[in-house]
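Late entry, evening session. Most of the bench is empty. Finally got around to the prediction I had been postponing all week. Sequence below, unchanged from the version circulated by S.P.
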Amino acid sequence: MKKSTKTIIENINDFLEYLDIEKGLSNKSQEAYARFLKRFIKWLKDNSLETLLPHKLTEDHIWKYRVFLSQAFNKNTKEPLKKSTQNYYLIALRNLLNYFADRNIVSLPAEKVKLIREKSDRTIKFLTLDQIEKLILAPKTSTITGLRDRAILETLFSTGARIAELVNLNCDQIKITPTTKDLEISIIGKGSHVRTVYFSNRAVVAIKEYMETREDKEKALFISYKGPRKRESQRLSPRSIETLVKRYALISGSPITTTPHVLRHSFATDMLNKGVDIRNVQEFLGHRNIATTQIYTHVTSKRLRDIHRQYHSGKEFKV
C-alpha cells in the first residue's frame, strides 16, 4: 500500500477515468458519479479540507459529511434530500474509496461509509388494470398525435421499459408484418446492458397503426409534431413523454402521481400478481440485482396476506 501525494479532489478525475476504462461504465453513469462527488468536493472546500489526502480521511470526516447531507436541501423542490438520494452520494464516495483500495492507495475502507437505513416497506406507486385501461384509451386516435400517444402508453405498459429506453427506440427496430401478433426486440438499457423487451398484441397493433401514418424519414420511433421541422431530430424528449403521460392521467382520472415510471411499476406488479416468478420479472425489468426487484414483493405480499385473511382465517374452527 502507498500513500498518495495527490489530494482526494485531485484523485477524482483519475477515478472517473477508472470507471470508464476499467469498469466500462456508460457516459451517463460517469456523469452521475461526477455529479454526486461534486457535492463532496464542495463540502471539502467549505470545510477547508481541499488539501486533504486520501490517508488523512477519517471516520469523523465521514460522519460530518453524512450530517451535512442530512441537512441539505433539494434546490428544485426546496425540500430536504430524501434518504435514498443521500445514499446515492454516499455510494459514490464508497466507490471512490474502493478505487483507492484497488490502486493500493492508503485510505479508509469503503465499508466505513455506512448507508442510511430506509424503510423496508418502501411505497410503490402503481395503477390497477382498470386505471391502466382508462389511461391507454384516453388518447383520441383520430389524430396522428393521438395514435402516437396510444402507442407510447401501450409500449410503456407492455414492455416495462424505462423512459430513456422508450425515447431511444428507432423505427428500424420494429419489424411488423401483416401476421405479427407480438414482438420482441433487444434494447440497450441502463448501464449499457442489452436485454429483450416484449410487445403485446395490443402494443403491436397500436404501433402499426401509428407507423402507417408516418411519411417522414425520421429515425426515431416516437417523434414530435410541434416546433420547427428543420431541427436536427424530431425525437421526443423524456420530458415530453412525462408531460403527455401526466396529461392523459388527468383526462382518464388516474392518480396525479402517474408517470412513465409508475407504468413500469404497474407492469412489474401485474406480472407478480399473476404468479410470474420474481427472477423472471427481474429479467423483464433489466435489474442487475434481485434486491432491486424485491421492492415489488411488498405490494404482492399485502395482496396474499389479504387473501389469507379472507380464506384461511381459522374462523371455521370451534375452540
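Two things to note before I forget:
The mean pLDDT is 88.
DSSP finds 13 helices and two strands in the chain.
Will write this up properly tomorrow.
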